[in-house]
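Rotation project, supervised by the postdoc (A.L.). Task for the rotation student: set up a whole-complex structure prediction and record inputs and outputs verbatim in this book. Inputs entered:
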Amino acid sequence: MNKTAFKNKFSPNGPSFQPLYKQVEDHVRQLIIEQRWKLGEVLPNEFKLAEEFNVSQGTVRKALNCLTEANVLERKQGVGTFISEHTEKNALYRFFPLVPDEGETELPSSEVLSLSIQITPKKVAEDLHLKANEEVIYLARKREVKGEICILEDIYLPVKYFKGFVDEPEIPDTLYHFYQTKYLHSVQETSDKIKAVLASTEDAKLLGINENDPLLMFTRVAKTLDGKLIEYRQTRCRSDNYHYLVNLN
Amino acid sequence: MNKTAFKNKFSPNGPSFQPLYKQVEDHVRQLIIEQRWKLGEVLPNEFKLAEEFNVSQGTVRKALNCLTEANVLERKQGVGTFISEHTEKNALYRFFPLVPDEGETELPSSEVLSLSIQITPKKVAEDLHLKANEEVIYLARKREVKGEICILEDIYLPVKYFKGFVDEPEIPDTLYHFYQTKYLHSVQETSDKIKAVLASTEDAKLLGINENDPLLMFTRVAKTLDGKLIEYRQTRCRSDNYHYLVNLN
DNA sequence: TAGTGGTCTAGACCACATT
DNA sequence: ATGTGGTCTAGACCACTAC
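Outputs recorded:
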């Protein structure tokens, strides 16, 4: 680890000040992107990393804690430091803010309606920064909880990131875990745009509701640790017994 | 500051382990609740607080940084530590996630439609934990951006926390700043439940849209630093040119 | 018992804002 | 020039987990 961070006064036109722990943080993030450690494997402890990077253990600690806050790493006292994993359980709480008005949240089961390679719709290409000639995998699903279909999803994945996806014999419910383990793309951040819309004839039919009933519509773009935009998702969902929950502070 | 935190082994049935910095954090939070420092006033620096609490400066630092992350405090290098304030600018970004599909976010202007004391609706009493005989102030507003009315709000405030509110000659746009400066209630945390609904006849009229057009409906409960539930708010808003934005990570 | 992360301290120095 | 928060280091010890 290079310690020029504090020599800005000797290079006033150089890059702006970056604290050492930030440099360590970026470096570790880069090592994760480069797959230096396997999923589920324990990272070296603070002293070993400190030695490798030629900084103090305290600086490594600060960097690792920052990565933990950003949900990149998970640390367990007495055990070690691990790369954060998309399990079914944390999928529910981290990226699925749809909760029933009454009772416990549960993960909806999924049924694939359609899976194919398509010309990329203009809006999708725009939001995923795809070129005109790049194709996408199109996956449509309907999802149900307690026997009631409540969610319809149209999912678009750039072909370049998901080679062979259309030939998958089985698409699991928890897609982000699947992306992470099978395709080595770990969703790090999502952005949802939420609107209210009226149910189309087709959606109404699939959901078992009336045309022009109100639906929540989310448009999501998902980004990986290394900044790749790997998923565009448009979700319509009933909100008569569910709501989208947002806590701010 | 009492340092029994690390003597748990001597009181195995005592309270569970609390690190010193957490104790300092809670203590400072309590001091803020008790109005020890005025809004806008600078807090004592780390060394002075450390001396007062009989802990090291590093421990105070950790506590203050935790409070900063929780948006309770704001720290400015070279200046000092302050109690976080609800300004017009941060109101926009912290508690107003409604953004236009195109262009910059701006704060909608507000017009009061109604202001009175009312019997508390059952749902409001439930969510704000009010007793049956406690009354609320009811405030209805319509809000517009660029000449277009896009938001209707029904706001309910417990009378006990907002004495004299109905006689206010002027209700400003940024309510949370108003609550904080005039009534000394600082909103710390909100919880929004979002649904899609159809516009009622009345809402449609006020918004200048058709009955049964789709609207986003948020139901919000706002909580202060000391855990008081001070506001119930039901918002309906057009989402044809706006969306509710949620970033997860 | 050994090894991990978590806490606490003390001290030196840097970056930033104000006077 | 002064005072604030921010960074970095080094070392001691505590709490938790696994073996």
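Student's summary: The interface with chain B takes residues 70-71, 94-95, 97, 188-198, 212, 214-217, 219, 239-240, 243-249 of chain A (CB under 8 Å).
Supervisor addendum: The two ends of chain A are 36 Å apart (CA to CA).
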